[in-house]
Design goal:
Blueprint: E1 5-8, H1 14-20, H2 24-29, H3 38-44, E2 51-58, E3 61-69, E4 80-87, H4 96-110, E5 116-122, H5 126-134, E6 138-149, E7 152-162
Length: about 170
Amino acid sequence: MTNITIRRADIADAEAITRIFECPRVIWGTLQLPYPSVQAWRKRLEVNDELFRFVACVDGQVIGTLGLHLDPNRPRRKHAGGIGMAVRDDWQGKGVGTALMQAVVELADKWLNLTRLELEVYVDNEPAVHLYKKFGFEIEGRIKQHSYRDGEYVDTYYMARLRPQK
């Protein structure tokens, strides 16, 4: 079994994260455009109190990333966080997404007191939908023609997880 470690991302990870977002399946499954810029990822990785960015690593190599976005300037939405994730094409289906989701759900539930996690996922991204359902996310709606991908419009599910009450 592969030992996947999760840690906070830093600016030194910009090149590795850029390589993740160069992968064809990652581009297909996210709102990112092809040909990402290392400079743009460096800027995204600068200290930001509204974003927790994690990376998944195997043998010191970054193979996945997940961002948890908060909006502390909107008092009535402090209980919610938004998630965006990508796993390098050659590591998809090997437990990386599960490890990243476990880390972010634990952070949200046990440390940030978030009661709602939200995300958007393409309806035809069945492996991702399955992963999110495994962590208690439910489909709350379908956004028709939400995004333009590879020459056509695609629908997106809006999914959310409410923290289980004790």
